[in-house]
Design brief:
6-stranded mixed β-sheet; Rossmann fold; 2 domains
Length: 203
């Protein structure tokens, strides 16, 4: 029963993890980065800075992030889809604009209630709400992102240092736990296959 309850909690936490779909240039405009005119190379630098900011703030959550940009403002020949530090980066191609791509991603999502769609575009926000997704304005998201980044920094600072070695009491406990197992031929062969020598394990 305890194992089942633990699995249920783990499954619910995993299933409800947020999935972020972000209008990249919309967010950059909200940050004031694209106030003036910028050429393709300037936009490329702005995109990279934004992606680094998201990675720094979200950490391991970046695998659940998709950032969409308009390809018309990108360098010629850029791939329509690529990965950057675990994030999915999508460029709208052909006649599609970023808003069109985001709406398509919302329609195709198998977990729409887990989606957090970041855009100031009214049409995109309405598309998100129709599917039960959370629509977040860019200013709201940036404020949340800053708080989230600070929280992660506090948690990282308070986390205890990982021990590289077992204490003497831990070693004695594990020796007692596995005492006599070497007499079993099958277990002896299994342990030998990992080449344990003098308390060390080879890669």
């Amino acid at each position: 029963m305890l194992r089942l309850s633990f699995f249920a909690l783990w499954y619910n936490a995993t299933a409800m993890s947020a999935i972020y779909v972000i209008d990249g240039y919309n967010l950059l405009h909200a940050m004031g980065v694209l106030g003036g005119r910028a050429g393709p190379h300037g936009l490329e630098k702005a995109r990279t800075r934004l992606l680094n900011l998201l990675h720094g703030a979200l950490g391991e959550e970046t695998h659940a992030v998709t950032v969409v940009f308009d390809a018309a403002k990108a360098l010629p020949g850029i791939a329509a889809e690529q990965e950057y530090q675990g994030m999915r980066v999508v460029f709208a191609t052909g006649k599609e604009e970023a808003d069109d791509v985001i709406e398509r991603l919302i329609r195709q999502s198998s977990s729409p209630k887990a989606l957090q769609v970041v855009s100031d575009d009214h049409r995109v926000q309405q598309a998100a709400k129709r599917r039960g997704s959370q629509a977040r304005g860019c200013e709201e998201f940036l404020a949340w992102l800053d708080k989230h980044r600070r929280k992660r920094q506090v948690v990282a600072a308070e986390a205890p240092e990982k021990k590289d070695q077992l204490s003497d009491s831990e070693i004695r406990r594990w020796l007692a736990e596995f005492d006599g197992l070497e007499a079993d031929p099958a277990l002896k062969q299994a342990f030998e296959s990992y080449e344990f020598e003098k308390g060390e394990m080879t890669d």
